[in-house]
Specification:
The chain is of the alpha+beta class. The protein has 2 domains: 191 residues, GAF domain (Beta-Lactamase); 169 residues, Hypothetical protein af1432 (Orthogonal Bundle), CATH 1.10.3210. It is built from 14 helices and 6 strands. Strand 1 and strand 2 form a beta hairpin. The termini are far apart. The model has no long low-confidence stretch (mean pLDDT 87). The protein binds fe (ii) ion. The site of fe (ii) ion has 5 residues, from loops.
């Protein structure tokens, strides 16, 4: 009997060991899968240059790791230094929305920013650390805050709440988010720096465009006027706000390429030689070359590049015709010609300034040849209603 007992005991031990081994292998497998997943994510994070996309991605991954329902990505606004919600998952309320400012005065986010440390709350109602602190709308039950830090500079916070199992968050979970939050912080900073440098490049270029206008007394204020007319046309056509802004900005920069053309040619009163004419027709090409490095301008470059195309296909630089010419470029063409006609331009109309009525007649003459007839009609309406 004793021998049988012993046999049972040994069999049991073997069984338990096998089970433990199986569990261990399973856990290990899970860990490896998780690591491979994180590795993939890391590559994706650094591939995107879209801040909203990146923020949403980070929240989704973190919620998956934490097994939680709600997450916020809050960033410090570099101009106002205020905390602002950048992305939200798992909330659908008026009180918590994108761009909402979060107070740092006597709040947990303020505490995290000061200490540059994560905060794990098991239950906010009983947490003695935060009894005298102002509670934010979403701070309920158990939640975590993780600072986003790059090179010792805090750029924002992650907040997670609403565990799926109604459990509390654990220290281990907080630690497992370490890699992700570090990666996210550097990727966000990278995008912010990139956006900043694009912004300053753009303002330099806008300054340059104004300087070109100022170079010639005849064209002073021309780009701003073209932008104004183009905006009126875009509004009348019922375009989206985004499109209106794009067309306005493109108009401001439409003659930027003239920066590469000498004063002698630009200010010449007599007729241009063939070579001079060829050079001046290069200005849309030069503008495209200057603006191409700015990624955020990729949508408006075609408007600038094609603003001298003719509706009948005889314009330059590509000889596009009809609807093949981008709408923004067709609008600028009308606004540009009108502005040129009502101001004194040496080589136009024998140095004569036309009245709005006369200029409109000229535009109508050019309908279907040089200009898109729909846009001329729209502009005619604007002028008639005295909106310019
Ligand atoms: Fe032009």
């Amino acid at each position: 009997m004793k021998a049988i007992d012993n046999l049972f005991k040994i069999a049991n031990t073997i069984n338990n060991t096998a089970k433990a081994f199986e569990d261990h292998t399973h856990n290990l497998k899970k860990k490896i899968e998780e690591l491979a997943f994180l590795n993939k994510i890391e590559r994706v994070i650094f591939l995107t240059s879209d801040l909203t996309l990146l923020s949403n991605l980070v929240l989704h991954i973190a919620l998956r790791i934490l097994k939680a329902k709600s997450g916020l990505l809050i960033l410090i606004n570099s101009d106002s230094h205020e905390l602002q919600i950048n992305s939200i998952i798992g909330y659908d309320s008026e009180e918590i929305k994108v761009k909402k400012t979060i107070s740092t005065k006597n709040t947990i986010p303020g505490w995290v920013i000061k200490k540059k440390e994560p905060v794990l709350v098991y239950n906010i109602d009983t947490d003695i650390r935060f009894q005298n602190i102002e509670r934010l709308e979403y701070e309920k039950g158990s939640f975590v805050y993780i600072p986003l830090i790059v090179k010792n500079e805090i750029i924002g916070l992650l907040w997670f709440g609403n565990k799926i199992s109604n459990n509390v968050f654990s220290v281990n979970e907080l630690i497992s988010l370490n890699v992700l939050s570090n990666e996210a912080a550097s990727a966000i900073k990278h995008i912010q720096l990139y956006t900043e440098s694009e912004k300053s490049y753009l303002s330099i270029i806008q300054g340059l465009a104004l300087a070109i206008d100022a170079r010639d007394p005849h064209t002073h204020g021309h780009s701003t006027q073209v932008a104004h007319f183009a905006k009126l046309i875009s509004i009348e056509l019922g375009l989206s706000q985004n499109k209106i802004d794009d067309i306005y900005n493109a108009s401001l920069l439409h003659d930027l390429g003239k920066v590469g053309i000498s004063d002698e040619i630009l200010k010449k009163k007599a007729n241009l030689s063939e070579e001079e004419d060829r050079l001046i027709k290069m200005h849309p090409v030069i503008a495209k070359q200057i603006l191409s490095p700015i990624k955020s301008l990729e949508d408006i470059i075609p408007y600038i590049y094609h603003h001298h195309e003719w509706y009948n296909g005889t314009g330059y630089p590509d000889g596009l015709s009809g609807e093949k010419i981008p709408l923004g470029a067709r609008i600028i063409a009308v606004a540009d010609s009108f502005s040129a006609m009502i101001s004194r331009r040496p080589r136009f109309h024998h140095n004569k300034t036309l009245s709005s009525k006369e200029a409109l007649m000229e535009l109508k003459k050019g309908k279907s040849m040089q200009f898109d007839p729909k846009i001329v009609k729209t502009f005619e309406q604007i002028v008639k209603e005295d909106k310019i």
